[in-house]
Design goal:
The complex is a heterotrimer of chains A (526), B (318) and C (290).
Chain A lengths: L5 H22 L18 E9 L12 H14 L1 E9 L3 H10 L7 E3 L2 H9 L7 H7 L1 H13 L2 E2 L2 E2 L2 E5 L5 E6 H7 L7 H14 L8 E4 L4 H10 L7 H6 L8 H13 L14 H9 L2 E7 L10 H8 L5 E4 L11 E2 L4 E6 L7 H12 L1 H9 L6 E4 L2 E4 L20 E2 L6 H10 L5 H12 L2 E2 L9 H23 L5 H36 L1
Parallel strand pairs in A: 1-2, 6-15, 8-9, 11-16
Antiparallel strand pairs in A: 3-12, 4-5, 6-12, 7-9, 7-10, 13-14
Chain B lengths: L1 H11 L9 H7 L1 H19 L10 E2 L5 H4 L1 E2 L3 H8 L1 H21 L1 H11 L4 H11 L7 H12 L4 H8 L11 H29 L3 H9 L4 H25 L8 H6 L5 H4 L2 H8 L6 H28 L7
Antiparallel strand pairs in B: 1-2
Chain C lengths: L2 H34 L3 H5 L13 H8 L1 H33 L6 H13 L4 H10 L7 H4 L6 H13 L2 H9 L4 H12 L1 H17 L2 H6 L8 H10 L4 H7 L9 H16 L1 H5 L8 H6 L1
Classes of the chains: A alpha/beta (526), B mainly alpha (318), C mainly alpha (290).
Chain lengths: 526, 318, 290
Amino acid sequence: MIYLNNRIKKCLGLSLSLLVLVSVMSGCNSKKSAVDESDKTTGPPTTLNVEVFDRAKAGQAPLDNNYWTKYVNDNFGKDNNVAVHYIPVPRTQEVEKLNIMMAANQAPDICFTYTQSVVYNFVKQGGVTELNSLMSKYGQNLTKYLGKDVLSYGLFDGKQMFIPAMRTILANNVEYIRQDWLDKLGMKAPTTTDEFYNTLVAFRDKNPGGVKGVIPWGVGGDVNYNFSNLIKSFWTKMSEEDFAVLPDWQKPGNKEGVKFANKLYNEKLISPDFAIDKTAKQSDSDNSNGKTGFMAGNFDTPLRSTPGIYDNLKKSVPGAVLTPVDAFTNYDGKHYKNQYTTNGMFIIIPKASKNSVQAVKYLNWMADPKVTFFLQNGEEGTGYKLVDGIPQLLPQTGDKQMYSPSNVDYCIIYNGTQLGDPAKNVKAIAKSYPGYEAEATKAMQIASVDAFQYFWFDTPRDSDAKYAKSLLDKTAEMYAKLVTAKPADFDKLYDEQVKEYMANGGQAVKDESIKIYTAMQAKVKK
Amino acid sequence: MKDAIVVNDFKINPRKKNKMGFIYYLKRDKFLYLLLLLPITYFIIFKYGPLYGVLIAFKDYNIFQGVLKSKWIGLTAFKELFAMADFYKVVRNTLMLNGLDLIVGFPAPIILAIILNELKNLTFKKTTQTLLYLPHFLSWVIVGDISYQIFSSNGLVNGVIKSLGGTAVPFLSDKWHWLATYLGIGVWQSIGWGTIIYLAAITGIGKELYEAAEVDGADRLRRIWHITLPCIKPTVIILLILQLGRMVSIGFDRPFIIGNPLVQDFSDVISTFVYRVGLGSGDFTRATAVGLFQSVVSLIFLLGANFIAEKSGEQGIW
Amino acid sequence: MSVKLKERIFDLIIILFTVSGVIVCLVPFLYIIAVSFSSNSAIVSQKITLFPIGFNLETYKTVFRDSAMLHSLFYTIVLTASFTVLSMVFTICAAYPLTKKRLKGRNFLLLIIVITMYFSGGLIPDYLLVKNMHLLDTSWSLILPGLVSVYNMIILKTFFTSLPDSLEESASIDGCTDIGILIKIVLPLSMPVIATLSLFYAVGRWNGFMDALFYISKPALYPIQLKLYQIISISQQLDIQQAEGGRGAGIAPEALKAASVMFATIPILIVYPWLQKYFVSGVMIGAVKG
């Protein structure tokens, strides 16, 4: 095959060193300059690059040149001598692309992501601009309208490392039930877990819909999400520290909750194929076909126009009625459920950006209620019409279309409609589900009853950034195995699986959480 | 200067009497070297240029400091990897799935190509070829959706089974059944496409070979056994060697999309592992370490397979 | 049993086998075609098997009216064609010389090429290289980095090696130059393989989108599969829907997904039938005998 004589050895050596040299030279990064805090209001316009998500909507207008970008440039750009350019990033691979762009100093001046661990990594590696002085100089609106509470989610050791978008709807999980089935059986909507169980059994045995293969509770997609409220209702009293540092799997009562789900599965009360229905296609279909009597998920899942569960249900089963319910009660008689924390998308300015001043000014301008309103609603008459003092969005064509809820792709500092008044916000959100406003309002109201938020650590946890994704996958695997297990095997299996979970990063996260929690308590005592 | 080296060697090592200078070979084969200049330049710039990236596996990679300035950690990432129980599981699964693919999926296109070659009607032959490779063009996302509809416990196949009085088969939810389903879908997706290269090889077989054999009284099967197969042997061998070189690499899409949490024990492979613990957490060091591990093992497999082939008298890669 | 009967049975078995294979391969495609012509409510209710329910052309109208999709389609065709031609040229330039055992340094060169099949710098160094060469957001970033596939090159080299030496010897005795031998004798005889490898390159480029994801930010340069992937994969990522809350984060209706799949797939499907004319026996026989 190969015989390495002297000449070839010399060639090899020479060529390999040449190759290494070429390699090393191509790997050199250019030097980064210090953060520029000058104002630059005169001279040629500065280009400000802002990331924008590309959702590949059919027929979408150019994301860099449409009604909204023109508004931004006409109103912010002109006054500040800035030309705002939008850099499209495919929505489904935004994390991968962001990582690459940051590594090559190629990222836009304003970037954002929903994945916490990604931002933490950037902060930890020193790639993000610290915003304290910029915020105090140019960020008055942001501080005023987002508020110190929301902004504090972006503090690391007192340094503002990113700007969290404000979430205006905190509603998370809500259950829906087939009211028409209840009516047929002469039952009331369940308000406790026991009533819920009896209702499911009645659905299965009496089959009020007369369906072939009735599935009392349609489960599919993200299993953790489906069972969220049910399992949390089994949590018993625990100290604040336990609540903060224990993973859900180890929280007191969690085992009983999963055991209950296992009971439901073995008694044929939930979708038989839920564990392999990864995209929720089967459960969406079952829900739309009227095969199910109960479903749990996001507060608005059945109301959305895609996949259009309620729409299709009404077509397939005339007379079908879905009502939001609060079916699970805990040891205290409360409807314990979690809601989102008030921070939404994570907005960062890369350290390599030379336009951090303009970037903060841009975000600050966006926080002005007039601007926020326009970006989320458009002009009166063309973009929306006022109904009971609440803007109701009108359908748009051409480049006036919004491709994201509340135009979040452009109005990045808010996740959800922001009208300045929480009550108005709820009404506006409800109006965005034409025909289902009553259900949406009720669901949002239920979502806030006895709602809690997960503990927020003021220092990023390295272990969380490292293990978050694998622990998420492990959770999905555990649910699949535990809920479908034979009842006799459950207890042992649960303990085994939790052991594996802890060994695969769960323990590391817990240990670090305890450390930071203790430090936080010490700070408070001071 | 080159001639000086030759002269020196000549003096020191009389066995190299017949060695000519490099310039001689350059002149004699100048056309060949000229041709090679283009692709070699490509390889140097685009393949060796970025190769320093393998160093990421040995560094605590900070994407802002770059590869060269990041802190050196030596073999720490590898030690961590080899200490993870999950790592062995995913390597085992990768080898298992690839091994099964090799046993079932490698011969399948060969057999199909031979069968297609025996078709007499030319139009029928051409049409079937085009239709058979359609599955190759469906992205795995689509295939995943369809396979769910076909193989779930309320899906198409189980519907037929149930109507015939049987009980539902857990094609996707039991890990052993899942293996068969995974393999079957793999064969379905690649068999048609795989025939193309073998059909190209078969067209190179002279017709008179078949005619002579027919005259000698050989029937169809014997003609296939004694002519078709031996003639495509070089192609089969080289593809087999290349396939063996890929035993530790596995695509991400098929196991990820066809897999599900219930069959995790088998469906978790190196690529999904890297996605989870590497790229999903922005841990480039670990992802690169796994990649480097795969590269080294793959090269060893390839060289080994090639060595065995050449020792058996077959034409290998070299 | 008579020979003729044996042959007939053999033929029959072959035909049956082939037809069942075709059905298995064709059915999922027919399903997608059916979905692309159906109404959304029928699709979500999973009522569709092989025929459209609620037949309508709406989704196809949407796709064809989308100028970005049309533009992307034409761009991808041009990109794929140029890539294939360039790749084949470079691959031939690599495979042919490496066939010659008399070439000095042959084994070494082959080794450094084979190494690149398994060892690579990774995503970020690749990206930095493309960036430093100022190829970002250009079509060249989609052509140059993946220009030569070592796998394809080895296959071509194997085919070249299987050509009898006597052919080239007699040609050079007849006074043919090196270039002449390559162009007039070797290439024409290798048409089936060259056609096959061209197909491999073309399909590889057509179906590939990961590089475009990183190197291209201008929507005008998106290959069609990148757009398609966006459309079909967002429903796979449930966490996107949860994080953004409310009103679904832009999931395309199933019919639109199916129509887009058809739109992005059918052009490349017709390449192979067109290439089949190259899958003919070489004129070798006469040459060897002579």
